[in-house]
Design a protein that fits this description.
The complex is a heterodimer. Chain A has 1 helix and 11 strands; from the N terminus they run E-E-E-E-E-E-H-E-E-E-E-E. By secondary structure, chain A is mainly beta. In chain A, strand 7 (65-68) and strand 8 (75-79) form a beta hairpin. Chain B has strands spanning 4-7, 10-14, 19-25, 32-38, 45-50, 54-58, 61-66, 71-76, 85-92, 98-100, 104-109. In chain B, the strands form 2 sheets. In chain B, strands 2, 4, 5, 9, 10 and 11 form a 6-stranded mixed β-sheet that branches. The radius of gyration of chain B is 13 Å and the shape is globular. The chains are: A mainly beta, B mainly beta. The interface between A and B is medium-sized, with 26 and 22 residues.
Chain lengths: 113, 110
Amino acid sequence: NSKVIQTPRYLVKGQGQKAKMRCIPEKGHPVVFWYQQNKNNEFKFLINFQNQEVLQQIDMTEKRFSAECPSNSPCSLEIQSSEAGDSALYLCASSLLGFAEQFFGPGTRLTVL
Amino acid sequence: QQKVQQSPESLSVPEGGMASLNCTSSDRNFQYFWWYRQHSGEGPKALMSIFSDGDKKEGRFTAHLNKASLHVSLHIRDSQPSDSALYFCAVIYNQGKLIFGQGTKLSIKP
């Protein structure tokens, strides 16, 4: 059973709408990752945090996506203006160290109509 | 750009048989190779990691790394129907992010 909790499991939005998803990492894990898995099962790294600080993010994330991991609150990933190409499974993972095993949640499946 | 190539795309193995999956890194500046398994409707789950040349065994799973050729393989012996899933090779190059291969769909036939 996944110990990384992601909500909601399914999200349906119209084009141009905001889409927000949340992640509670495994207890004690300071490193959090967000990945996008498309319908062809291709993964794309989006952003990662250590505690509340951004370690690395891709250009796409900087422009239309926003993410945060506040202390004592769930991490979140928000797409400001959803596009059809954003339809995918968004996976949150957490780990003890940057190169250690990453524990994945079940994902939030976003459909943009 | 760092890329991870997996083969085959799909594989069918009889129950009790051996499944062999392959993975190659485009960049020799890697830290770890990881193997993840993803069942339908779930997130990926780590099977094992390897970073030294040679074999690493965990139960029915054995990984083999050849650093010179940047190639890693995963062998699953005594395959079970519950092993049917997508298998991903993922490489950590720096800062912890995983670069995933395109996956191998493994089907175990009873």
